[in-house]
Amino acid sequence: MLSGVPEGILQTSWSDGECENCLTRSITPLTSITLMISAQDENGCTSEDEFNILVQVNRDLFIPNIFSPNGDQVNDVFLISGGPALDEISILTIFDRWGNMVFQAEQFKANDPQRAWDGKKNGQPLNPGVFVYQLEAVYIDGSKAEKYGSVTLVR
């Protein structure tokens, strides 16, 4: 919340054009910004101030390197997790060691067990082994990250 309420203010103006004649306002920037406010009192005197707001986006993205789809309710799915800055996983593709695609999901939220890989292909459990994945993550500020790696399936 940005505020400062000097006495006798008649007009205020913000550099981004939002909220004319507001002495206080809430903002939620996605990137770092500089805002200026200009205020004029009843005598015509003008004052300006500048606010530098530094936004640091925590781009947490957690990808397991092993899982065990054995029905014990512990690590039964390959689940991509992320922090609040992660908007969605635009695509996740998993391949076996011969390059055959065994799983693909598109445009889903991280931390969703319904969109996680259960270690099956066409409904059939796969044998233990090492699988490779590629994914593209999209953050709330529009930036993207591509990740590649491997995950081990154990039973």
Summarize the structure.
The chain is an all-beta fold. The protein is built from no helices and twelve strands.
Describe the structure.
The protein is mainly β and 155 residues long. The chain has 2 domains: 45 residues; 93 residues, Immunoglobulin-like, CATH 2.60.40. 0% of the residues lie in helices and 46% in strands. A 5-stranded mixed β-sheet has the order 5-12-11-7-8, with no helix packed on it. The chain has a 3-stranded antiparallel β-sheet with strand order 1-2-3, with no helix packed on it. It starts with 8 loop residues before the first strand and ends with a strand.
The number of distinct helices, counting runs of at least 4 residues, comes to 0
Reading side by side through the largest sheet, how are the strands ordered? 5-12-11-7-8
- Which band does the percent of strand residues land in? over 45%
* CATH-defined fold name of the largest domain: Immunoglobulin-like
Q: What's the CATH architecture name of the largest domain?
A: Sandwich
Give the % helix: under 10%
Major sheet attributes: 5 strands, mixed
- The mean pLDDT is 90
Describe the global form. rod-shaped
Q: Uncertain runs with pLDDT below 50, 5 residues or more?
A: none
Number of strands: 12
Radius of gyration: 25 Å
